[in-house]
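ok here's the first one, seq then C-alpha cells
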Amino acid sequence: MKTGKYLALSVFLAAGVAQAATIQWTGTWDFGSSNPPGDSSWSNPNSWNENGVNTPGAPAAGDTAIIQKYFWGDPGLDSGVSPVLDVATPVLGDVYVADADSGIGGGQIGELNLVGGANLSANNLLMAQPVGSTATVNMSGNAAVTVGGFFNGAADATINMSGTSTLDITITMVDQEGGTWGITIAGDAVLNFAGGLPEYANNEITALDPSKEIRATFISGATWRYTVTVPFPDPWVLQMAVNGSDLDFDWNTRSGKLYDLESTESLTDPSWEPYDDGVSVHANIPASGWGINTLSSVKAVGPIRFFRIKELEWERPMIDILTGNHLYNPHIIQEPGEEYEFKMWFFGWVHADCNPGYSGCDAIFHARSNDLDNWEEWTGTGWDATGNTALWAPVIVGDSVYFDQDHSGDPSGVKKDGTYYMAYSTTGNDLDGYVWGDPNDTDKMISVVRFATSANGIDWTKSTQPVLMNDDEIGEPEVTYLDDPETPDIDESTIVIPGYTGQFHRPSLMWDVDHWRIWFDYWAPSPIGTSLGHAECYGDPMVRSNWVITHDLGSPLLPGWTNPDVVKHGGTYYLYGDPPGYPGYDPWTDWRSRQTKGAVSSDGINWTVTGFVDPDPDVETAHVPEAFMVERDGHAWLYIFYGVQVGGDPYNFRYDRMRYMRRRLD
C-alpha cells in the first residue's frame, strides 16, 4: 500500500453531490444565436415588463420564461426590476436570463431571485447570450432549481446558491462562444449533476472555504475542460485553473513537508503516480516559506486525467550520495564536535566484482562527511573526495576461517566510550572448504554474525568466534532458499531440511541504556523463511557466550522480514527492512516486490507493522534500508539510507548507487 497523506481529487459522476461547500465555477463556451424577444415575460400573456408592471401570474406547464432587467441593446438604461419567485412552478419549457434572440446586440442584463420555497423546473436554463450581457440567478433559503440542460452564450452568467438551496442539472450541454460563467455554492447548498458532468471548455471550480475538502479533476477530450472541488479538512485548500493550454495549481502547505502532484487516467482502476508532463516529473515539491505552494504552467498530457496532491511522509532529495559498481548497506553514526561529524561504513564491490586484490569477495568500506550529502572514502592511505572507486580501500575483508571467507558485509556500528563497535555478517565455505555450487561441495555455506572493535573506525580487531551462529549447521548441507528471488536466472531450488534454523545474518547493533542488542534476520523453520530475530548481551560483546537469543527461533519477532535495521527515539523503536510483498509484483519472481517496509515498537520485541515505503519516483526499488537518527536544524530527523538496485531485464542484482530519505519525528 502506498503511504502518505492525500488531498484527493476526483470527478463528480452521475448524481454526484458537492455538499456543505463553497464552490465557484468560472469558464467560457459558445452558444448559437437563439434570442427570444421582449423584456421579462412568460410566453403566455402573463408578463414581467421592465417597469415591474403586469407582474405575471402562475406560469403554465411548457411556458417560456424570459428574464431581462434592462432594455436589450442599451445596458446603460435601467428601467426594470429583478423578479422574485417564491413558489413552485410546473415544468416550464426554457428559462432565458439575459438571452435575447434574432442576433440583437449586447446590453441584456437579467436577474432572477429564488427565495423561500421557490421550486423552478424547466427543460433548459439559458443565460447571457449577447455580447456584453450579464445574467444572474440568486438562490436562497430552500429554493430549488431543476433543469435538463444548462447553456451560456457569449457573456457573463452567474448562479449564486446559499442556505439549503439545491440545483439539479440532468443533461448538461454547453457550446462555447467566449462567455464566462460561474456558480457559487455556499452554506449547505447542494449541486447535483444527475446525468454526468458538462462538456464545458476551460471550466474551473475553486473551493473558497479553507476548512473544506478539495477535490479537483481535469478531464480532456481534444482539450482540457474543467475542474471540480469539494471540501477537505483544514489546513488544505487546492485551487486549480486553466492557463491557456497549461494547468495551474496552488494549495496550502505545512512547514517541512514535501508534495507530489499525482495523476491517473482512471478512477475505476487507478494507478496514481507523480505527474510527468514531458517537461518535469512533479514530485518532491517542497513547502513554500509563506504557506501556499504555486505550481504554474504544468503541461496537459493525455486525453483523460485525474489529479491529486499527496503530502509526503518522507522528504526525498533524490541525491545519489555514493555510486559505484555494487555498493549498499550504508550504516552511519554521528560524532558531534569531530572534524567530520558523520561516519559511514558500507559494503559491496565498489569498483569491480569481488574486489580484486583483496581477500574474500564482499568487503566493508569507510567514508566520512559533514553534511550527509558529500562523502570522502578511505583509500588505505588517505581520503578520496572525487568519487573514484578505483582508489577506495576496504577496512574489513574476509579471513581464512571457515565462517568468514567470502562475505564481509552488512555493517552496523556504535561508538561508545571512545571505541567503535561493529556487528557484521560473514559467510564461509563451511568445513569442506568448497564454495557452494562446486561439484565437491558437501556442506553448502555457513552464515553468521561476527563482531569487531576499533579505535579509529579504520583498523579493526575481529572477534575470534561469531557472536551469533547455529552450531548445528556447521558441516551440514543445509539450504536456506527454495529459490532466491534476487537471482531468478539461477536455479537454487532444493528441499530445505525439515525444521532447519540458522543462517544468522544482517545484524542491527544498539547500545540500549545498559546492554547491547542485536536484531538480525535468519532462516526460521520452513515454511516461515527469513525472519526477524533478537539477541542481547550484558557483558563483553566480543565474547560469543555473552550473547543470548531472547526468543524461540521457531517463533520469530516478525516472520518474513529481511535486512532489518532498528533505531530508537524517545521510547519508540523504529524498524525497517525490505521484505517482499510490495503491491503489484510477484513476491517470488519479481525483484521489485522487495521494498522498504517499516514497523514500530515500545520494547523492540513486539512490533506493529506500519507498511511499505514507496521508492523514489525515478527508481524502482529502495532495498537494504539503514535507519539513522540525528538532531538537525533543531528537529529530530529519522533518515533511511538505502541501495538502488539496477534490476532490469536481463536482471542485474547490483546496487549501483545509494540514497536517503528522511522525515521529522517532532
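and now the second one, same deal
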Amino acid sequence: MTDPAVQGLMAALTRGEISRREFIRRLTALGLSMPVIAALLQACGGDDDDDDGGSSDGGGDDEPTATEAAEATESDGGADEDEAEEDEPTEAAPEEDEGDESDDDGGASAPSGELVVAQGPEITSLDGSMSTGMLTFNVVVHMMEPLLFRGDDMKPYPHLAESMEQVDATTFNFTIREGVTFHNGDPLTVDDVVFTIQRISDPNTESELLRYARTVTSVEALDERTVQIKLSEPDVTFPLRLTLVPIVPKAVVEELGDEGFDANPMGTGPYRFVEWRRGDRVIMEAYEDYWQGPPKIETLVFRGIPEDSTRIAEVQTGGAGLVTNVPTQLVPEIESNPDTQLYQVNSLRTIFCVLNTLKAPFDDVRVRQAANYAVDKDLIVEGILDGYATPTSQPFGPEVFGYNPDLENYYAYDPDRARELLAEAGYDENNRPEVNIFSAVGRILKDEEVVQNIAAQLEEVGFAVNLNFSEYQAYFDTYFGTGEPGMDLDIGFFSNANNTADADYNLSLNVHSGGRGIYWQNAEVDELIDKARQTEDQDERLALYHQLLEIMIPEAPWLFLYTQHDLYGATSKLKGWNARPDEMIYLYPASLED
C-alpha cells in the first residue's frame, strides 16, 4: 500500500496517536473495503490498546467487528465511495492525523513549549481574507483555515469543506464540515463561507484576494451544510486558488470592521490570536477545542527579521526555533551545530527582474534581450548562492505545470551578443542606456548581493546602472501594489512563489493585463492565459502554455534568472515538520522534543 494518506494513518495508529475506531472510520471515509482495512490493521501489529476492544474472541483476528464498522461509517456520515479520491488527504495534510481520542487512548499530552519563527520582512497584515503573500499566509493559516488544503503534492484536499462536488463546468458544491468552531466558540456555518467568498469578490472591499475569485458570479447556501459557488466561465484552477482563501467569522468581522478584525483576527485554526506587537511579532496560543485535536506546541511566535545575520544568530543562540533564508555560506555552521538542523527544498519560487517596457530603454525589445544575454545566471547560482538555485530562462521552473524544457537555456550567457544588440539599438560607449534598478532587501535569499552582481554584469556590456534598495513592503507597495507602474523604475528585482504549481498562478498574477502585468502587456498572451484556465484537458493546457512561452520569452519582458532553493535553520528540538516547495510553514503537526 503506497497511498500516503493510508501510510500516515497506519503510522498514527502504530504510534498510538489515533484509536482503532478512528483508524477504521478514516479508512472507511477513503472508500476502503473491510477486508482491506482488516489487512491494514494486521499490518499495524494487531490490537492496539483501544478501550473499545477488538474482535470478541480475543484472538489474532483483526477483522473489524460489525459494531466497529457500523460506528465508523455512521460517524463519518456514510461517505460515498465515489467521493473517496476527492476526500483523500495527502501525506502533507497533517489535519488527517486527527487526535482528540483521549477517551480511547488514555489521554493525549497537553500542548507544550514555545516556537519562534523568524521570516524576513515585517508582518503587515493578519486578515488572511484581505491580504495575500506567503509571509502573511504562513502566520494566518494557523489561526484561520481554507475550505481546501494544499497537500505536499500541491493538490487541493477537503479541509473545512468535508467534500467538494463539481456539478458542471462552472458550478461547485461544498459540504461544510460539522463540529468545527471558531475561537470564540461559535460554530462554523455556511453563512461564514458565503460571507467570506462574497467579501473577497466585492471590488469595494479592496481585498487582495479578489484575483482568486475573479470568475465567481454567485455564492449561496443551498442548505445548512452546502454552499454553491457559480463561475462565469470554466476555471480549472479555481479549487487550487481556494486553498489560499481562509474562512472568517461573519459576525465578528461585521462587529469589528475590517481594521478591527485585522488587529484581532479569529478563525477555526489550531491556534488562537493573543497579541500583535507591530513591527516586532505576532503571538498565538494553542486552541484546545480545535476540530482535529489540539496542536503539540503551546505557543507560536512569528517575527520579521530582515537582516540575515541577525536572523541566523537568533536560531544559533536559541532566540528562534525556525528561520527562513539561511545564507548559503552559513549552511555548514547550521549543519555542524548539534543544537540546530538544516532543511532544504527545491522551491517553486522563481526569481526574475521586471523590465519596464513603457519607456526607453526597455521599450526596445533588443535592449531587453541584451539584458538577458548580459547576465551569467550560472555565475550567480554558483558564485553567490553556492549552488542553491537552478538557472532558468522561463517564468517558472520544471516543477510547475506549463514549463517547456525545449526553451530552457534560451538566453545562454553571451555578453558579445548583448553588446551587438545594444549597438543595433543605437547605444555605444558614449551613449550608454541608463537604468534604475530597484529591489527590496531581506525578502529573497542573498537578494542584495544578487542585485549588485546583476548591476555589475549589465555595466560590463554597456549599461549605466543606478541601484536603489528599500524595505520590502515599501518597495512592493510603490512599484507593484498600486495597479499603476512606477515610472522611475527600469528594472525591478522580483519573484513569484508559484503557490499552486500551475503556470496560471504566476502568469495571471504577473503577466496578465488584469493582474500585475503593468510593465508589459500582450493581448495574445492574455487570451492564451484565459483559454488555458478554461481548458480541462491537461495536454491541451500544456500546449497553450508552451505557445504562450514561445511569445513571451523572445519578447523578454523580464530578465529571467533562477528558481530558488529554500534553506531553513531550525532548533534540533523541532520534530514533525518538513519544508514544502510552496514555502508554506505549517506547524500544526510539529512538536518540540528534548
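notes on #2: The chain has 20 helices and 19 strands. The mean pLDDT is 87.
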